[in-house]
Amino acid sequence: MDYALDRFVADIKEAIRATGKVPEPLIELQTPKPNIPADLAFPAFRAAKELDVPPPQLAQELVAMLRFAPDSLVGAVEAIGPFLNFHMNPERLGVAVLGEIARSADKYGHDAAGQGKTIVIDYSAPNVARRMHIGHIRSTIIGQTLVNIFRARGYRVIGDNHLGDWGRQFGSLLAAIHREGKPHAEGEVALEQLEAMYARYNNAIAEHPELNDEARAWSLRLEQGDAQARELWRWCVDLTLHANQPNYDRLGVAFDHAYGESFYEHMLPGVIQEALDSAVAYRDEDGSVVVDKMDKLPKFVLQRNDGGTLYMTRDVATILFRLKEFNPERIIYAVGAPQELHFRQLFALVRSMGYARDVELIHVPFGTIFDSHGNPFSTRKGNMLYLKQLLDDAVQRARDVIEQKNPDLPEAEKDQVAEAVGIGAVVYNDLYQDTRRNITLDWERMLATEGNSATYLQYSHARCCSILRKAQVDVEDWSPEIWQRFDQALVAQLQSLTHPSEQQLIKHLARLPEAVREATDRYAPFVIADWCYATAREFGVFFENCPVLKAKTPDLRTARLVLVAATAQGLRNGLALLGIKAPERM
Predict the structure, then answer these.
(1) 293 — alpha (psi -120 to 50), left (phi > 0) or beta?
(2) Which residue, 30, 122, 201, 439, could crosslink 176 as a Cys pair with Cβ 3.0–4.6 Å?
């Protein structure tokens, strides 16, 4: 879909091309510096050099020759030295942008660029028999947002929760369960008890080395299909899935598949043999299968000398399955930065085996979460924060803020808003900056109603809804009606939105499609967060400078109400892409 800014750019390029003076490859537009009062610029340097004329002369010649259609969004054009500066037509801009929001509603900002293409996104991936903790939240939130924004671009997206349900650690766990018996509790309490059993067993190995042999034996029994080992393991998997689901529900996270590492078990012998047959790997003297001297990467093991497999083995099998099953254009992994070497080795190995030559394999790394004292969360340090505890704490803190700000809200609505605000604060704290950066849990900043926080954005949306309510407008009934009524009278009313604050807000609304594209191109959810924050700021400026309910004329009042409703829709759409709810009252 071509949005308003797309048409603005296309009109400028076509007008320059039509002059016959500038070859099409040299028509490159750029955003002017903040101190330049223009919306787009054409620097004439490259074209002037090609034509052997001074850049200012070329700019002057072009400005005299440019022609635009009567309905073009291009307004004033001026030559300033070697630059051609272009301005949007203020009267036509509001009609165009608000009309697009009207027609697209909750799909505004979306397009069909990925139509017919498939992307697999691997995210969350908690370990079985462990509670989800704060270390899992970044993969979960970042991955789900990538799913959201790529679907907004029209891609078929397969979200896969690649559970850690296989491997050597299950030897100790199964041995511990065999010795102590299954916990009688359910949910996260049962997982906590399993964690304690696992820790007790491993701590006892130092004094009783034979326990290590017992654990190794259980690990092999599991891999070899022993009925008792499989029954205990399956119970652990089902317990974990059931315990984790409430956390996913609260975060708005939904997967298409939860294929754990065990799903690929039957493929592992073939993967190892194929790596050996293709001479990508070799069998070492101790019997292990090793990959070495590949793209100058450190050597690594594909199979232990006891026949056991590793993460790498299972990750190779996972890619081969996804290639065959989904035929994706890209496979994206939302996994922490410490795993960068692992993914470099994995991708190089898969390609050395002759696979994924035309498929993008992408690792989206992220940094560490620190507590308010600057310490990383760690079980050993005793400051580990489990996911349910984190979400409960966030919601309770949000409830306290709502009690202070709006004590008259009905109790049930306070609970709903607190859930939306608390969860939103956690999600936005993860997404508002580059994923590579480390983040800190700072509740005061996260729940602030001013500044770059989800609470501020949600409050801006609620303020929009409040204005519409005060206008005695039923938003649910009025919004569809006003969107559908793009008659001449409404067009004339919207053409009056020429105040600088109105124009700035409309221009920010117009940039949502561009932000969605950039976010997918860069695998960067923070681009959407930046757009939401800028839009909320511009709405604040508009609110201060442009009376809505007390506008000078009824027509201007209607036009500004439409702009307020469009802003609410834009913020809802942007927040939805981030997985954050937008309450109508706070």
Answers:
(1) left
(2) 201
Which ranges of 205-310 would DSSP assign to H, the alpha helix? 210-223, 227-251, 268-277
Residue 19 to residue 393: CA distance in whole angstroms: 63
What is the domain count for the chain?
3
Structure tokens at 98: 């608000």
Q: Are residues 161 and 40 in the same domain?
A: no
433 and 461 within one domain: yes
Angstrom CA distances, 227 to 86, 233, 238, stand at: 73, 10, 16
Whether 484 has a pLDDT exceeding 80, the answer reads: no
Phi/psi class of residue 404: alpha, beta or left (left: φ > 0; alpha: ψ in -120 to 50)? alpha
Question: Is the confidence at residue 80, as pLDDT, over 90?
Answer: yes
CA 439 to CA 579: how far, in whole Å? 18
Cα→Cα distances 63→17, 19, 42, 68, 206, Å = 13, 10, 11, 11, 82
C-alpha dihedral (125, 128, 134, 137), degrees to nearest 10: 20
Q: What is the pLDDT of residues 1-27, one digit of tens each?
A: 799 999 999 999 999 999 999 999 999
What is the spatial distance between Cα 194 and Cα 178, in angstroms, rounded to a whole number? 12
Which has the closest alpha carbon to 507: 3, 2, 1? 3
- Residues 6 or more apart whose CB falls under 8 angstroms from that of 139 comprise 123, 124, 125, 334, 335, 336, 366
What pTM, to 2 d.p., does this model score?
0.93
Residue 453: which of 442, 464, 463 has the closest Cα? 442
User: In this structure, what token pair is assigned to residue 282?
Assistant: 């070799």
Residues near 331 by beta carbon (within 8 Å), at least 6 away in sequence: 119, 120, 121, 122, 319, 322, 356, 359, 360, 361, 362
What are the structure tokens assigned to 336, written together? 């922490």
Return the closest-CA partner of residue 461 out of 583, 543, 355. 583
At 242, list the tokens: 């059931």
Centroid of chain to Cα 560: 32
Q: What is the CATH number of the domain that holds 38?
A: 3.30.1360.70
